[in-house]
Amino acid sequence: MKVTIVGGGGFRVPLVYTALLGLSQRLGIDELVLHDVEQARLERIAPVLEGLAAERGVTLPFRGTTDLVDAVRDAEFVLCAIRVGQLEGRVVDESVPLGLGVLGQETTGPGGLCFALRTIPVMMQLAETMAEYAPNAWLINFTNPAGMVTEAVQRVLGERAIGICDSPAGLLRRAARALDREPSELWFDYFGLNHLGWLQGIRDGARELLPELLSSDARLDTFEEGRLFGGEWLRTLEMLPNEYLYYFYYAADTVNAIRESPNSRGSFLLDQQRAFYAEGAQPPAEALERWRKTRHDRERTYMAEARNAAGDCHEHEADANGGYEGEAMAVLEAIAGNTQALLILNTANRSSLPFLDEKAVVEVPCIVGRTGPVPIAVGEVAPHARALVETMKDVERTTIDAAISGSRQQAIRAIALHPLVPSVTTAREIFDGYCERLPGLKEAFPA
Ligand code: G6P
Ligand code: MN
Which cofactor does it need (predicted)? Predict the structure, then answer.
């Protein structure tokens, strides 16, 4: 079985490789190809992977390439996590709106739209390449903004394109732990779009546990989302939102907090990774140690010093519990092993959320076997959540259309109709600000 990682020189690839090391024999993975647009990044990451394999005494040979056709040809699974414009682009995504008093964040708000505008055309090329050279491959997409990107590539690949995110599974795990329960014993009624979802029920047999959880400040205080939103608001809402909804419910607070912080999340990561990649190829043990140290600092420094100041909604505990590579492996295993596993994924709605059309990509629980994910029927949801999902789905689709057509008008329309953008004038200023700082974007969206 051939598995390809697009974005193979990325900083998190060692996490994915570690997870693959554990699975490769069972699933019969005999070819692993890493694709990256930069040979130097592949050369920096390769010895880290060799170090990991040596440490575990397992072999999973891999090769790197910058040729996309070579990388995906006849693959069975293509895992994709790319950052078009790299971290320099993320810094621009985050800082331009902030200068205008609007949220500046990687995936939520105008930052996510700008990120999508430059990412979708590249992802469409990947989709076309897969359609031609890997007609039976599954695309497991982590590339953000994952919901929009997955919906865009589904236009070419249909339901073979699956979007993943670690935040819903993290929320379920944390909620179960707060109830002193095992997630596998419970049914979680979760729905929404990527980074825009809600847990509206936790069922234990015929018993509904969510009211019990929301009524206890002591329990809510034990986990991230409970502390972030606060008991009073959660009891008012009667649902447990995905952490990213913090940017909607506490919009002004997050803008103020981020503006006061000296360093955005993007610029922190940029400095750190520049230093890591600048060191070039090293012997395996040394490369692995250096990667581990960088990663450790990445989580620790940020959590301890910058998180609150930066108004960031995460506590970055995900990796310790399986993280996004854990989600990717769960999908791979469910399809390859036909396990009919229950996973929360980004896939075409069919009729899961009856108020959206069948092709809208949603993030809902799915049964996953060898024919891919089948979304379960969520049904009607609270009017407030439905309204926000409908609005954001329209913003997402407008963004996808803008990205594919290169229409400046559509791009501005998407930004202006985003609920976190206060006026059309601001939307124009944001888009112009992006074009000024990203020459590629200016070229792609001629005035
Ligand atoms: C979570 C989200 C991802 C996002 C990441 C940002 O894991 O689910 O979609 O990319 O956080 O983390 P970072 O360390 O890059 O700020
Ligand atoms: Mn995510």
Answer: NAD(+)
